[in-house]
Amino acid sequence: MSTSENGTTDGTTAPAPAPTGPGPGSGPANPRSPAPPRSPLRVPAFRRFLLAQLISAIGSAMAPLALAYAVIGAGGGAGALGLVLATSTVPTVLFLLVGGVLADRVSRSRLLFLGNLLAAAAQGALALVVGTGAASTGAIAGCGFVSGVAVAFTTPAAQGVLARLVEPDRLQQANALLRLPTNAVKVVGPVVGGMIVAFAGPAWALGLDAVTFAAAALLLLGLRLGAPVGRGGALADLRAGWSGFRARTWLWTYTAAGTVLVAAWLAGYQLLGPIVAEREYAGARTWGLVQGAFSLGLLAGTVVCLRWKPQRLLVVAVVASSGLALPLAALACALPLPWLLLGAVLAGITLDIAGVTWVTAFQQQVPDAELGRMSSFNQVGERLAIPLSYLVVALVSPVFAARSVLLVCTGIIVAATLLNLCVRDIHRIRRLPRTPPAGAPRTPLR
Questions:
Q1: Which residue in 185, 209, 258, 272 has the most C-beta neighbors within 10 A?
Q2: 145-203: per-residue pLDDT in tens?
């Protein structure tokens, strides 16, 4: 790794001149290097990154509700809202691979700065057209398209930033610390957003979202991370990235299983959940309780990850992801509300544990120079699950009862988990030791 890859913030260098990520070419551990900080919070660059993520999450938690009411205010219905959501999702899928290549060729902190600045411009323009009464479905969709492009460039870059800010053995703690405030925001953000929309209108909530993106952009600019070392042309890098993705059996099998699992979860929870709650329970009131229980579970899962450090990271991630089947099974069987709420809490806990252990294993096992491209290939698979789930539900809903489809979704989640556990490489991924033996390079499992 070149000297320029050490991130700095306000003149403070990121921790320890040890390798920032495992992989071929990583140098041996330096026995004279200072001991890593006890907590990532002692690293100024990490605190800056954490604050930027939190500020951005505050605005993003309010945006979906504001967007829905902006579409309604423009005279649109469910079809128009679906078009707007699709318009923001499609460019993310289309440009993710480009974003992954760029994340391995240019400064990731600069890429995050530009991506957040683009998102701020898109949300600011949307707030302006909504506030002036000039909004139409086409204009809202256009702003959503720009926001989707921004996500495509920031998502792969964000995966590679954290591995440069903290030591490899501190990555799980750092990932959990990043998720703790953002999960807390998910609990209160929609409530605050609803109040702003109710009393001031959706334009104000969208404008606040734009301000948070701009503030996050300025904070991220201060990271000043150097660019990874480029090896060739962009197309050559993309081909090399695809070869590396296919060569890592644990990575592409986890991505494939995750795509199926996420599609089943979205179809069952996001689409059919409110419908079954309306028919079998107390409607919106029940679904609000379920959503709150799930969010509290996410917070609890983050707290667990701050303390528990399993050795077999991917095994834990795969097994924990099966917890998403619990609320779907409860809905399908029309269990009493306390059991449904318990299933939602457990699903939130296990989902967050799966998320933290997965991203920690990913950051530890993939070399720094490939993090952007590997992340983009993984993200393309999981984001394809969104339209896949919508399409499947649209096709089967007229034929099968919602509770029957929920049972199928439950079975798909369990089956995807069991099949993924049959992959040998999943069991071979272990947490990196705190300090490798002197003179021994850390080589990731391929």
A1: 209
A2: 888 888 888 888 887 788 788 888 888 888 888 888 878 887 777 677 778 877 888 88
Does the residue 214 lie in any domain?
yes
Identify whether the C-beta of residue 280 lies closer than 8 Å to the C-beta of residue 406: no
Dihedral angle, C-alpha 186, 191, 192, 193, nearest 10 °? 90
Task: Characterize the bridge pairing of strands 8-9 and 12-13.
Answer: antiparallel
**CATH code, domain carrying 68:** 1.20.1250.20
Say whether both 178 and 249 belong to one domain. no
309 and 222 within one domain = no
| 34-47 pLDDT, tens digit each | 454 568 888 888 88
Pairwise CA distance, residues 115 & 318, whole Å: 31
Considering only CA atoms, which of 247, 270, 286, 377 is closest in space to residue 324?
Answer: 270
Whose CA is closest to 22, among 439, 429, 432, 434?
432
171 shares a domain with 110: yes
Short-list 439, 434, 437, 440, CA closest to 16: 434
User: Residue 45 corresponds to which tokens in the numbers above?
Assistant: 């660059």
